[in-house]
Write a structure and sequence with these properties.
Length: about 210
């Protein structure tokens, strides 16, 4: 009888521990998922394929970013809180401690200053694939998008290496992330109806094959 009495309690405890473990191991991708590979292939097929435009008229000032999201917290700080583990913030919402694992290269960092917030589809890439015709309000929404898998906390020098390059020009050093990189790039471009080049389409297809 005693064993039967304790059994439901043991099951509940185990279930609670599983939930805690899952919450503590949320990766940036799990926190902000893109498409599954099958959906990504379909979305890629739906994108307009055309040559990349020019940067004439482009400037980052045309993409106001790090908007205030809530209270004193801006978009950058929200991404740092979302992507990190055990993140502690000050009164101004800036992280004072925490741990961040960069999905691009697997680097682990404990100082927020070592982490950049990367736009999955860089601002300049959006400009040359359709955003030059947007209003500034549309570009601001793109630059601060917390709903699509557009904003990532990554190693600063890896982000600088990527710069404004597309997947046919740059890929994350960590090849195991290529599948996610491709699906998320496609998710963002599809949502905003941005075009892709032939070379970009081929590179994305190659990365999807890693899935």
């Amino acid at each position: 009888m005693k064993a039967r009495t304790w059994l439901p309690l043991i099951v509940l405890v185990i279930a609670a521990l599983v939930v805690v473990w899952q919450q503590g191991s949320v990766s940036p991708t799990q926190a902000n998922p893109g498409s599954d590979p099958g959906a990504a292939r379909q979305q890629l097929a739906e994108l307009q394929v055309k040559p990349r435009g020019t940067l004439n008229g482009y400037s980052r000032e045309k993409y106001p970013h790090w908007d205030t999201v809530e209270g004193t917290c801006n978009t950058r700080e929200e991404v740092l809180k979302r992507a990190g583990q055990n993140v502690v913030t000050g009164k101004d919402c800036a992280p004072t401690s925490g741990t961040w694992v960069s999905p691009y290269d697997g680097g682990t960092w404990t100082q927020a200053s070592d982490v950049d917030i990367d736009h999955m589809v860089p601002l300049a890439q959006s400009w040359v694939s359709g955003a030059s015709a947007w209003t500034q309000a549309q570009r601001e929404a793109f630059a601060n998008d917390l709903e699509r898998p557009q904003l990532w906390a990554v190693t600063d020098n890896v982000n600088q290496s990527k710069s404004d390059r597309a997947p046919d020009e740059w890929k994350p050093p960590l090849e195991s992330f290529w599948c996610t990189y491709a699906t998320d790039w496609i998710t963002v471009k599809h949502y905003y109806q941005l075009s892709v080049t032939t070379a970009e389409q081929a590179a994305l297809t190659e990365m999807l094959d890693r899935c």
